């Protein structure tokens, strides 16, 4: 594991993101990928649960928000698919290992926890809890500019931290992340909240996303094994994967629970039986 300096932590607070190359070894990345390959090989998803993942707001509301499959995925392994890979009957049109957009939101990888505990302590986190995790395949889709706090809202803000781990080289050709440096200091203007009971969808968006200046985004290519720290309010995106290669990544979000209230309007809710697990235990 690469060590983290105080200068790097200061840079993270200034920019809202930080690239840590070679944080994990190639072997550790391959181990994670092999675990996921086994999960996908054994994947049997009922047709009525086959939810196409979309980043367009209206389709997101329709496809994800109206589905209990999405809303109850916080502590389970659930599959979300690329667009156009299922027919009307929910059957796969392409090999299923190429059909998955992401797996979420309750993936666990115990062997990595020790490294991330050390990083959390260097960042001054006192009671960090893991609120969600995802394995992202990045076969095709672009992800529009967004802030993670739109979906994971806390009072006060500034308590959400993303860990984005490159399991393969992430390049501009295969869809690396892009960021607007310093954009984590402007708050948020849009939230995804649970809709009132009886509504046609389970979630809805409140507020609006501002028009971002595309010239302000900078790309962050990163090598296999690298880690990107992501502030919950920094604006980021990824472009279409225009290459022949995939761009696998494992990502999860941590909340500093000390002095923090998790919004009861968030789509993802802990339960007394399954609270958010501590990063430190």
From TrEMBL:
Keywords: Iron, Metal-binding. InterPro entries: Phytyl_CoA_dOase-like. Pfam families: PhyH. The keyword Iron applies. GO terms for molecular function: metal ion binding. It comes from the Eukaryota. Its cofactor is Fe cation. Belongs to the PhyH family. PHYHD1 subfamily. 2-oxoglutarate(2OG)-dependent dioxygenase that catalyzes the conversion of 2-oxoglutarate to succinate and CO(2) in an iron-dependent manner. However, does not couple 2OG turnover to the hydroxylation of acyl-coenzyme A derivatives, implying that it is not directly involved in phytanoyl coenzyme-A metabolism. Does not show detectable activity towards fatty acid CoA thioesters. This is Phytanoyl-CoA dioxygenase domain-containing protein 1.
